[in-house]
Amino acid sequence: MRIVSISPLLSLFFYLALVFPVQSQETSGFAWVEPVLFETIEQGEVSHYRYGDSSFAGADILIKDRRTWMEFWAAHTSGIEPPPPLPYVDFLNEMVIVTLLGYQTTGGGSKIGVFRIGLGFNGKLLVFVEDRVRPGLLQVITNPFHIVRLKKLPIRSVVFEHNKGKE
H/E element holding 146? Predict the structure, then answer.
């Protein structure tokens, strides 16, 4: 009878594969291991962040400190009178993700939304966003947005993946 020995490193690999199974996002080439819970701060059709800029094609922003949050919120709400109060975020334990669709003339038919966040290997935060660009009933300018909060994580990079929504 022959006894086969498995190296300690290989044993560790198999153990980790059982404890932390890798899930594949069908719309993505990324593999992630830990889903991250998030909460919507605000979502809507008009952000005033670069609102009148017809060349604005959208943005994805990670905010990790109060000063940047205050600056973003001031720009985001600049066209609203009276301006709404700054939502409280505990930046010792939380961070904010903002995704904006950009300048749209589709009149309220377009939307954007974060639908999944995962923490991947090597500290990579994966943010999956659905974009829906479609005509609305009115010919007005919009800048759809979604602002979410999540726990502060030890991340090294952030990858936003935008998927076109089904009509």
Answer: strand 145-151
